[in-house]
Amino acid sequence: MVIDTLSLYEKLKENMDPAAAEKLAQALATSLVQIEQSVRQATEGRLSRVEQALETLVRVTQEHSHEIAELRQASRENTLAIAELSKAVQENTSAIAELRQTVSGLVEVTQRHSQEIAELRQMVQENTSAIAELRQTVSGLVEVTQRHSQEIAELRQMVQENTSAIAELRQTVSGLVEVTQRHSQEIAELRQMVQENTSAIAELRQAVRELVETTKKHAQVLRRLELDQQDIRKQLGGLAMAFGYRLEDDAYLALPRLLKQDYGIEVQGRLKRDYLVDRQGNHLEVNILGEGVCEGETITIVGESKAQLSANEIDRFLRRKVRRLQGVYPNLFPIIVTYMTTSPDVLEHARQRGVAVYFSYDFRQQ
């Protein structure tokens, strides 16, 4: 804000001694600059805290599931709305500061205006405290962003009305002494508008409390759904295990014939499900285990079942089972039995890695 000291001096000396008017004009100009700097710093601090609160709100919103994705757009609109409100409040604060410093030069109404401006500052501080409380509570709310948008729109309308009133005050202040009484009336109107803002914030606080309760109820419902989902996964895991055991049981009977037919391996004894000790001395469960003889050499048959075989499952079987047994048991012969494959190239992938693959329907062919 640029202070026209000369213009202020010209207007003051009309009602007082020129020397006193010059000192008063310089004092007013210095005070205006200091208060402008103080107001700018305080406003920037409030805006920084509001931006931090908004960043926290965005992070919480991103952690939620897709049910709140539709609210992100509303949150962006709220951010723009709050930026507009911040700008309007900054302009209002600057305007009030100009009024406060200019009116301070008026002899008859200086004390009364200072008291009224102090009351306005107290109201604004109370509003700031209320907004700080709301910001802490709103950080945990996402699902009510749309309702906030509507309430912020109402606040924007109130701030615009305040801005218009302050613009009228700025025009009338240019007359200084001649419009002193008119200033008093307009300041009273500003007090009324601030009181209306206070009432609106109180309504917002109540709405936020209700939304907190709603959010807690939703969290309880989500927890119950999570427990139900865990139970379903356990049941599916049990079904998958049952199918795997059935497939392996069929394999114990059919594999001796198939291995002799396809690879010339004579199975010794019976195939079974058992444990082996790996290279680190740990017990390793093997779902298809047996010994065989091929061209006079002992073969260790190691296998497992997969309901639907993929290339990744083949690599996982080799990594978790076969490689851990290499060097401990002679001539490992890896086998996987399955109902079907996930893609046509799975069999070629198994062949390249030396894994024999049999399908469930192979067990019923003579």
What is the gyration radius calculated from CA atoms? 41 Å
Strand element count: 5
In spatial order, strands of the major sheet run 1-2-3-4-5
Distance between the termini: 99 Å
Poorly predicted spans? 231-243
Overall form: rod-shaped
Helix-strand string: HHHHHHEEEHEHE
State mean pLDDT (0 to 100 scale). 79
Percent of residues in helices comes to 55-70%
Beta fraction: 5-15%
* Count of separate DSSP helical elements: 8
Q: Outline the biggest β-sheet.
A: 5 strands, mixed
Total domain modules: 2
Could you please describe the fold and organization of this structure?
This protein is of the alpha/beta class. The chain has 2 domains: 5-223, no CATH class; 243-364, Trna Endonuclease, Chain: A, domain 1 (3-Layer(aba) Sandwich), CATH 3.40.1350.10. Helices cover 69% and strands 14% of the residues. The chain is built from 8 helices and 5 strands; from the N terminus they run ααααααβββαβαβ. It has helices at residues 5-12, 18-63, 71-103, 110-138, 145-173, 180-263, 311-325, 346-352; strands at 266-277, 283-294, 297-309, 332-341, 356-359. It has a 5-stranded mixed beta sheet with strand order 1-2-3-4-5, sandwiched between helices. Strand 1 and strand 2 form a beta hairpin. The longest helix is centred in the middle third of the chain and has 84 residues, at 180-263. The N and C termini lie far apart (99 Å). Mean pLDDT is 79; it is low at 231-243.
